[in-house]
Amino acid sequence: MFEDQFTCPLCGFHGAFMAVRGRPHAQCPQCLSLERHRLQFVMLKKVFEERDTKKMTALHFAPEQCLRPHMSAMFKNYQTADLYNKNVDHQVDMQSLPFADETYDFIFASHVLEHIQNDIKALYEIKRVLRPNGIAILPVPIVGSITIEYAEPDPNQDYHVRAPGIDYYDRYKTIFSSIVIASSFDAEPSIQPFVYSKNEYVVSDEEWVHPYWIEGCKFIDEIPICYR
Questions:
Q1: Averaged pLDDT, 127-132
Q2: CB 63 within 8 A of CB 3
């Protein structure tokens, strides 16, 4: 059907997207980008459309394979980092970065901070290594109304140490000079930047409704763009 045809902004594929973990229209079958990757890619281009990225140094935490080549081509000096993955430039702990102050113009870490025990310390470290006028894009999965901290990593939730709520990005506001929140509505629907799910994830016991639910089992995704 026409409404099930989408276009991937990363690889140019046009057609039906695949279901992932019960989410229909989630993944591009060609480059394997998910909803958040397509939205992030479009917003990344918008954020830097008036900046000369060929003069900038970027650090990409937990680099996604579908985004990695595009970001590598975009920035003059593109570096990658991860705590466990050895296929990166820097194997580091985000809570204690070994880099000098004001090393990077841009830092990208998608769906990382929900795995970090001391996320506040990590956020201060990110700000420390950003240059003046630097930018960090640091989205996490918003799954509830308020953020819930876990006593230990949850193996049933990909070892998250917290369930971020709609209040989570308030933490960023106390650290960065300004925050701009972009959403799925800021991208063309043709790239499928929304998260679709099953009915049981929308309403539980006929009472709780996901805070980002809109209609037809569709959820808004958000991206915090943080300015040092």
A1: 97
A2: no
127-138 as b/e: b if 16+ CB within 10 A: bebbeeebbbbb
Is the distance from CB of 38 to CB of 187 less than 8 angstroms?
A: yes
Q: How far apart are alpha carbons 113 and 110 in whole angstroms?
A: 8
Q: Report how far residue 7's alpha carbon sits from residue 14's, in angstroms, rounded to the nearest whole number.
A: 4
Which residues 6+ apart lie within 8 Å of 75 measured at CB?
53, 54, 56, 57, 58, 105, 106
* Contact call for residues 17 and 23 (beta carbons, < 8 A): no
Instruction: Give the span between the Cα atoms of 142 and 212, in whole angstroms.
Output: 8
- The string of pLDDT tens digits covering residues 147-179 is 999 999 989 888 999 999 999 999 999 999 999
Q: 149-155: long-range contacts (C-beta < 8 A, 24 or more apart)?
A: 153/115
Strand, helix or coil for residue 131: strand
CA 64, CA 68: separation in Å to the nearest integer? Answer: 6
The token pair at 11 is 């690889």
CA 44 – CA 56 distance, rounded (Å): 14
Rounded CA separation 26/195 (Å) = 7
